[in-house]
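re: the backbone from monday

yeah here it is again, tokenized this time
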């Protein structure tokens, strides 16, 4: 019989003892039963019961110790090309990460960069967590060894190694040594997050690593560039020789001693749940969830967000477990692409009474459709929002949350929003609301790290305080200053709160005010920003750069006045977006090429072209289409129909098919 750490915890619970502390100081250990204790046995099979045994002589402690040959070692290595992080960490095919020295090189350079930024002092506490994708567990083991070898005293790992990205940010911001804590009390100085976000997982698919800094925010460009430079010069890394395997399924509170470090298995939910309870009125949401006529469907896409959705929606708010679909994390995401858009969340889209293009499916039985539909991506930071037969674009979602801030206690209790921001490719729907409500609005490059500076302007730079703060991206990312990451579940609860407030005065058998009602009222007030994104995935990198160079040379730097067209849509000008951070003054260039048009109605339109930094192979050309329509009679047109002429004109101007050979996008969202 093998007695694992989990088995020890069960025994400890029976005896009213605390979770076990396991000291690992030699070869990988397997516990084997002995008459008076548990002998520690190496994987090679040799028993070492004489100096390495489990004892329970004292009821106040329970731990296994071993004093043998494990030690910190320095391993020679050499630089590996291609380790420059993108907009959210480094993403590669998993087989690349499984290559010799690959994880070790990247993590050693990450540690060295963090120490350098910390004034040369070794970090004290670091979190390691992942979205549960293939290679997650193996990478956690490797990273823990490197952190311990480099002298990091406390290493926190969530039970089973899985935690959503916003939950990691919450742990960094809140968790103290006793597991609790309020926002700002957190003692962790960073978090290593194993995720490729919305990219597929499994053999042959993607894996990634990103770093979050001391306020829970994604590492900035200064950090990632310094890290990258170190990857070009690395000659060795530190690790633990003959390190044992950490039992990631061990009970919360279990600790392991590895070299001079303590590894603690932590609760993945506590700090994040505390955060959400400070943002929303859970009692109000629970009551609203019990109202006649309200139903919900949440698609976890087999990612990390699913277990958090169950914890919040079912266990806290009392919704039936039938409201959940695909909420069990799987290493390959159940063979699905965990990106919550109209294409990859197709089952949810169908069950919400929608067609693949987001328009209403008139054949669906409207009486059976859920009131609210939502989806998360692989690491739980993105969201899709839909109502019965009605899809809400991410840009419209941000605008409506902004306009309805009084429905969200996080904002209302602090006097309303003091700042909002969107990524440049997102539609200007947010800008219109912010201007009407006199809220400062910022337009940033794509990448959540740019929002981090704005949210932490006072906290980090002693600058202006823009919190409460709302921000988001067209790529299904929405968030606020409660953490320093986008947060899919936060967006879902924000929409539940808006629905609850909109239905406060509805009585009797009157039908609920639904999402469609709310959005259409918003359009009547502010006008509609038709919006769509075309993704051309896996394009040859050289061809993708040719497209961008053509736009830059002929339009952004050229003369658009002589551009010939037979369309009623006229090209006005073209610019290349650059950004000067209003908080720290840093500059970012070449963040997308914008073609500005005028419609025959006189209303504006634009098309943005940008190369994505979130893929692991080839290049993705993203084309973002937006046109404003103030005529209420035209608001009911589906976005693909409304934008068809604009798309055709833009593709003709940039010679997309001639250059790439692509006559259609891979995905339309």
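seq for it, each position gets an aa:
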């Amino acid at each position: 019989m093998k007695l694992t750490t989990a088995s020890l915890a069960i025994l400890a619970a029976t005896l009213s003892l605390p979770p076990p502390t396991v000291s690992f100081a030699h070869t990988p250990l397997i516990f084997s039963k002995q008459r008076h204790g548990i002998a520690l046995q190496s994987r090679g099979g040799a028993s070492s019961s004489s100096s390495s045994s489990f004892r329970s002589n004292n009821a106040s402690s329970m731990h296994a110790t071993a004093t043998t040959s494990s030690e910190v070692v320095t391993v020679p290595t050499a630089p590996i090309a291609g380790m420059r992080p993108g907009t959210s960490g480094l993403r590669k095919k998993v087989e690349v990460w499984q290559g010799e020295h690959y994880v070790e090189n990247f993590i050693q350079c990450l540690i060295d960069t963090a120490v350098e930024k910390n004034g040369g002092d070794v970090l004290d506490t670091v979190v390691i967590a992942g979205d549960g994708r293939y290679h997650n567990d193996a990478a956690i083991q490797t990273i823990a060894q490197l952190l311990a070898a480099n002298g990091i005293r406390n290493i926190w790992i969530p039970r089973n190694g899985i935690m959503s990205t916003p939950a990691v940010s919450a742990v960094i911001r809140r968790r103290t040594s006793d597991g609790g804590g309020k926002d700002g009390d957190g003692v962790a100085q960073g978090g290593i997050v194993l995720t490729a976000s919305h990219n597929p997982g499994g053999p042959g698919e993607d894996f990634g690593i990103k770093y979050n800094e001391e306020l829970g925010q994604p590492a900035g460009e200064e950090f990632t560039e310094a890290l990258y430079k170190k990857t070009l010069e690395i000659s060795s890394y530190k690790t633990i020789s003959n390190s044992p395997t950490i039992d990631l399924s061990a009970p919360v509170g279990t600790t392991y001693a590895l070299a001079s470090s303590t590894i603690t298995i932590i609760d993945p939910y506590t700090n994040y749940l505390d955060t959400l309870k400070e943002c929303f009125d859970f009692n109000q949401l629970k009551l609203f969830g019990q109202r006649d006529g309200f139903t919900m469907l949440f698609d976890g896409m087999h990612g990390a967000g699913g277990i958090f959705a169950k914890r919040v929606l079912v266990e806290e708010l009392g919704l039936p477990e039938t409201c959940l679909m695909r909420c069990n994390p799987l290493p390959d995401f159940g063979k699905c692409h965990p990106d919550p858009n109209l294409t990859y969340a197709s089952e949810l889209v169908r069950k919400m009474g929608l067609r693949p293009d987001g328009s209403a499916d008139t054949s669906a039985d409207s009486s059976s459709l859920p009131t609210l539909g939502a989806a998360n991506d692989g690491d739980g930071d993105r969201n899709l929002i839909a109502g019965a037969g009605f899809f809400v674009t991410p840009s419209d979602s941000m605008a409506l949350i902004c306009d309805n801030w009084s429905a969200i206690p996080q904002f209302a209790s602090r006097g309303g929003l003091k700042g909002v921001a969107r990524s440049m490719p997102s539609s200007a729907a947010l800008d219109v609301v912010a201007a009407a409500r006199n809220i400062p609005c910022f337009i940033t490059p794509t990448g959540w790290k740019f929002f981090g500076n704005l949210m932490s302007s006072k906290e980090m730079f002693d600058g202006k305080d823009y919190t409460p703060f709302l921000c988001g991206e067209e790529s299904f990312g929405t968030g606020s200053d409660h953490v320093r990451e986008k947060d899919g579940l936060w967006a879902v609860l924000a929409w539940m709160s808006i629905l609850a407030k909109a239905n406060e005065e509805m009585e009797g058998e009157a039908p609920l005010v639904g999402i469609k009602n709310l959005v259409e009222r918003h359009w009547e007030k502010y006008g509609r920003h038709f919006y769509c994104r075309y993704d051309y995935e896996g394009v040859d990198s050289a061809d993708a750069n040719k497209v961008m160079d053509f736009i830059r040379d002929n339009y952004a730097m050229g003369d658009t006045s002589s551009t010939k067209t037979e369309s009623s849509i006229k090209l006005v000008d073209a610019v290349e977006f650059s950004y000067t951070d209003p908080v720290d003054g840093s500059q970012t260039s070449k963040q997308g090429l914008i073609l500005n048009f005028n419609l025959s109605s006189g209303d504006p339109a634009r098309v943005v072209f940008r190369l994505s930094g979130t893929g692991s192979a080839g290049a993705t050309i993203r084309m973002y289409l937006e046109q404003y329509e103030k005529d209420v009679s035209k608001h009911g047109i589906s976005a693909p129909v409304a934008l068809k002429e604009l798309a055709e004109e833009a593709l003709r101007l940039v010679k997309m098919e001639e250059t790439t050979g692509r006559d259609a996008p891979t995905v339309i969202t």
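Residues 469 and 602 are 33 Å apart (CA to CA). Confidence is low (pLDDT under 50) at residues 1-17, 24-68.
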